[in-house]
Amino acid sequence: MLSLIGILVVVVGFMLRLNTLLVVVLAGIVTGLVSGMSFNAIVSDFGKFFIENRYMSLAIAMTLPVIGILERYGLKEQAEKIIKRVKNATAGRVMLTYLGIREISAAVGLNIGGHPQTVRPLVAPMSEAAAKAKIKGPLPEKLSTEIKTFAATVENTAWFFGEDIFIATGAILLMKGFFETQGMHVGVWNMAFWGIPTALSAFIISWFRLRRLDRRISQAALQVAHSSEGHTVEAQAKDNPESADKEVD
Prior knowledge:
It contains twelve helices and no strands. It is an all-alpha fold. The chain has two domains: 52 residues, no CATH class; 164 residues. Helix 11 packs across helix 12. The longest helix has 45 residues. The chain is globular and about 85 Å long. The relative contact order is 0.08. The C terminus is likely disordered. It holds the Pfam family DUF969. Keywords: Membrane, Transmembrane, Transmembrane helix.
């Protein structure tokens, strides 16, 4: 049980909002030490596994510079312009569409999204643009942060539950390996099949939450409209005090 203390380190580190990489490395070191490994052996294992799996970092190393160049030359701005032209677009509908595409693609083993590749440069700006079009003005900071949070949540939900339907994903193979060590023989097709109801439930729950987000945006739009009407009346009263007195009479 003591070897599971690494999980506690991860939880505490995330709660304190410390650097993710440092928290994970520290959790690995603590877990190794309480399991009886020497510090040198732990560091050696880190280096060994990094060398063996270094190809996995190529996707990040190649993607981030491309995304950075695209953002510098107006990717976010173009995404906002496109979504503003769509009549019935709302922040919730934009994110729900992405959720559906991402979940289906993950279910068939295609990784076509991600936080740095899609959410930050496309999904979040398009959702904010849809909300701005609804409010017809700049977004309140709290609402803007909430939309960005929902965009990140949609990515996590879609990928997490969608990939469990694909039989060759790491999560399915990990569960199969664990069950076999416990003497339970469960086929990967069975696990993938029973991942479908969970994925559908995640989609429905997300739809409900995104619909509530759209309602909050609509309420904010009404408040902004009422506030602007009040300012207009006040401005007219200042410009024409006599007409304002007549209206009062």
